[in-house]
Specification:
Layout (H helix, E strand, L loop, with lengths): L1 H17 L2 E4 L2 E8 L8 E10 L5 E7 L3 E12 L2 E7 L2 E3 L5 E3 L5 E7 L8 E8 L3 E9 L14
Parallel strand pairs: 2-11
Antiparallel strand pairs: 1-2, 2-3, 3-8, 3-9, 4-7, 4-10, 5-6, 5-9, 10-11
């Protein structure tokens, strides 16, 4: 019975570590991650979920990381059968409406990488909110769960 309890505790701990999250005031930032990149690939992509448990909205207005020359909010959409991407200056986080940064939609572009994003590594990313201020999270470099088998997201 004791061994089973130890295995259960280990399984719970490893699950909690895999689903890392952060809190900044009323905001929660869930499972920040980045896709692995090949050596020489100039750009990468990062994903996370932001939500507020408060009653007032906030806005994500800036991003930075030492791993890239720039970090920007981008969105992808299908316009008449053509996938288009555009940069956004900010994203509102409204109460009851989590914002999902994910492959194929809203995402964070890491532009001008200083080196490849290697699976299993952690990369710092600072998010700047209009009201809540700054928070630095660690992006877990891993293949997104819904990434296509042929390689994924490239720009």
């Amino acid at each position: 019975m004791r061994i089973r309890s130890l295995f259960l505790a280990a399984a719970l701990f490893s699950g909690a570590a895999a689903a890392h999250g952060y809190q900044l005031g009323d905001l929660t930032i869930g499972h920040p991650s980045a896709s692995p990149t090949a050596p020489g690939q100039p750009n990468g992509a990062a994903y996370l979920t932001i939500e507020t448990v408060g009653t007032a909205p906030d806005r994500l207005v800036g991003l930075s990381t030492p791993a890239a020359a720039a970090a920007e909010i981008h969105t992808m959409s299908d316009e008449g059968g053509v996938m288009t991407m555009r940069r956004l200056d900010a994203v509102e986080v409204a109460p009851g409406a989590p914002v999902h940064f994910q492959p194929g939609g809203l995402h964070i572009m890491l532009i001008g990488l200083s080196g490849p994003l290697e699976a299993g590594k952690m990369v710092p990313l600072t998010l700047t909110f209009e009201k809540a201020g700054d928070i630095t999270v660690e992006l877990a470099v891993e293949k997104p769960a819904d990434a296509p088998a042929h390689g994924g997201h490239h720009h």
